[in-house]
Amino acid sequence: MTHSNSNTNSAIDEPLVIRENDSNGVVTLTLNRPKQFNALSVDMLSALQTELNDIAQDNNMRVVVIAANGKAFCAGHNLKEMRAHTEEAFHQSLFEQCSQMMLTINQMPQVVIAKVQGIATAAGCQLVATCDLAVASENAKFATSGINVGLFCSTPAVAVSRNLLRKQAFEMLITGEFIDADTALRQGLINRVAASEQLDDTLQALIEAIISKSSVATTTGKDMFYKQLEMDLAEAYEYAGKVMTCNMMTDDVSEGIDAFIEKRHAVWTGR
After folding, report:
1. Inter-residue contact 193 to 187 (CB < 8 Å)
2. If you classify domain 215-261 with CATH, what class do you get?
């Protein structure tokens, strides 16, 4: 397993984001500001962006796990940092920076999984909603709580409203109230809930279900899935047919179908 650290704060020696790569093409990015509830400060967003940009270019990486140290997964933006800057330009830049990081998760070829061990609020809840998949401890809680300080969570609303049904999403956004992990599972914000001591095993089972598949299929599938969501029905079917035709021409599909017919395990080449 290899380790690398993202930018550190000059006042604090600990890295903002800890990166761990394993030999199976799984990379874990761990938010590492537990005392600040892993808030998405300008520096934290920069550290995440740097790592995500690097991973997105690495064809050997199949899955990205976003995890966190401490009791909180992510409490959203750093409110003290936001209050320290009264100029409009700072806030516009901050929200653009955050949106770009979220879009990177959406657009990168790897499957990104949130591993949520504690609270995820505001932009932290947005991060969970943005990830392709999410597993959570039964102790995890979720809220879009900006409304409690007079700030509607507009950017988190983009991701949350694309996960939950409208009335459920709007209730979260307009009340700021927490939902527990079981509710988040029912409403579509997360995929699986586990007891705290079983969270790693639950995550690993999901990872193995992904990396056992052809990398051609998973990367093709992620790209296609998000693009077709924004199309009308006829356009989506036309696009999907073209993608499926291209997918059919790959070596992995030939191997996969032959393996199925011959009742053996496929040997993927990623071509």
Report:
1. no
2. mainly alpha
Evaluate if residue 177 carries a pLDDT over 70: yes
> Residue 268's closest CA among 24, 20, 56, 28?
24
| pLDDT of 11 | 46
The amino acid at residue 24 is N
Same fold, 2-211 and 215-261: no
Rounded Cα distance between 17 and 227, Å, is 30
Domain boundaries, the chain: 2-211, 215-261
Structure tokens at 205: 């089972």
Would you state the structure tokens that stand for residue 259, as one six-digit string?
A: 């393996």
H-assigned helices in 31-87 = 42-56, 79-84
- With contact defined as beta carbons under 8 Å apart, do 243 and 225 qualify? no
Query: Model confidence over 98-120: pLDDT tens digits?
Result: 999 999 999 999 999 999 999 99
Class of the domain covering 2-211 = alpha beta
User: Residue 244: its pLDDT value, please?
Assistant: 96
pTM beyond cutoff 0.85: yes
Cα(55)–Cα(221) distance, integer angstroms:
18
Q: What is the DSSP letter of 108?
A: S
Q: Which two tokens stand for residue 16?
A: 């903002």
